[in-house]
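Long-time lurker, first post. I've been practising inverse folding by hand and with some scripts of my own, and I keep getting stuck on stretches where the C-alpha cells seem ambiguous. Below is the full C-alpha cell string for one chain I'm working on. Before anyone asks, I'm not after the true native sequence, just a reasonable design that respects the backbone. If someone could post their per-position residues I'd love to compare against what I wrote down in my notebook.
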C-alpha cells in the first residue's frame, strides 16, 4: 500500500513556486486557475501530473524554463488571454508509484489523461 500524499497549497506557475518547492523527491499537479477542460467523461481543471525521483525543485525548474501556458481562454468581456496555471506538490519516497496512481485514477475517471500530460513519466 502506498503511503498517503499530502499536497500543499496552490501557487501561481512562476518562480514564486520554485522558491518554495523542496529539493526532495515527490509529485506535482498543474491545473488551470480558472475554468475547466472538456474531457470524454466530464470536465477538469487538471492539466498535468509530474514527478521527480530526485528533486522537485530541479524538475519543476526545468519545466518552468519551457514555454509555459500557450492555450488561450476568453475572459468575461470577450478578450482572449493566455490561461493562468497553478501548481502544488507533495513529497514522496515513492514518486513514480504515486505519479502512476494519480495518472491512472484521472484517466479512469475522465476517459483520457489530462490535456497537457506528456508521454514521459517521472525524471
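-- Answer (accepted) --
I ran through it position by position. Result:
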Amino acid at each position: 500500500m502506498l503511503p498517503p500524499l499530502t499536497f500543499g497549497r496552490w501557487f501561481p506557475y512562476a518562480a514564486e513556486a520554485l522558491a518554495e518547492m523542496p529539493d526532495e523527491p515527490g509529485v506535482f499537479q498543474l491545473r488551470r486557475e480558472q475554468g475547466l477542460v472538456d474531457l470524454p467523461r466530464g470536465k477538469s481543471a487538471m492539466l498535468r501530473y509530474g514527478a521527480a525521483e530526485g528533486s522537485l525543485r530541479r524538475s519543476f525548474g526545468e519545466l518552468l524554463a519551457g514555454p509555459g501556458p500557450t492555450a488561450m481562454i476568453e475572459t468575461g468581456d470577450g478578450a482572449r488571454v493566455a490561461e493562468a496555471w497553478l501548481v502544488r506538490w507533495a513529497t514522496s519516497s515513492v514518486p513514480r508509484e504515486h505519479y502512476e496512481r494519480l495518472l491512472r485514477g484521472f484517466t479512469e475517471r475522465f476517459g483520457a489523461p489530462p490535456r497537457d500530460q506528456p508521454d514521459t513519466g517521472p525524471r
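A couple of notes from the structure itself: The chain has one domain: 11-110. The first strand starts at residue 11 and ends at 12. Happy to go over any region you disagree with.
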